[in-house]
Amino acid sequence: MTACASVIPPCGAKISPPTRELRNTQWELIRWNLTPNVNGEVRARQIPQGESSNPIQIAFDANGERLSGSTGCNRFTAQISEDERGFTLEKIASTKMACSPQRMELENDFLYELNDYRTIVRDGDRLLVIGRDREVLSFAQRDVNQKSSTQNK
After folding, report:
1. 3-state SS class at 49
2. How far apart are CA 90 and CA 80, in angstroms?
3. What are the strands of the beta sheet with 117-123, ordered from one edge?
4. Predicted TM-score of the model (pTM)
5. Which of 31, 41, 45, 47 has the fewest Cβ atoms nearer than 10 Å?
């Protein structure tokens, strides 16, 4: 089983799951692997908490038609289009609040990866967004109700 741990996508993972399997789910970015260097070594990008300690999150709506979330500073939304090959994100739009320069760079890179991903892999409570540039965004599933409970505190 340890051999499967280093494989991307992981053994047994679903590649490009249909949106019906992601409906009404929420995910938080927990790791960002950069493109391997010339020696093939994977490097991780630092993921600081956003403004007011807001994490980078994505959420699929209950109808499988929209993806929305937070970049840690701004909110974003995208339309989901699905065909027999899987789904794509279209018309990504975000709010334009000012953030720290470091946060704005992270936000721009994150939205670029969402716009230019190659595949999405679901492995239980993990979601991997693999970019055409071979960067991998790793998300952990969060309780949909957690969002409203933390906002009310």
Report:
1. coil
2. 6
3. 14-15, 117-123, 126-131, 136-142, 25-33, 57-60, 66-70, 75-83, 86-94
4. 0.82
5. 41
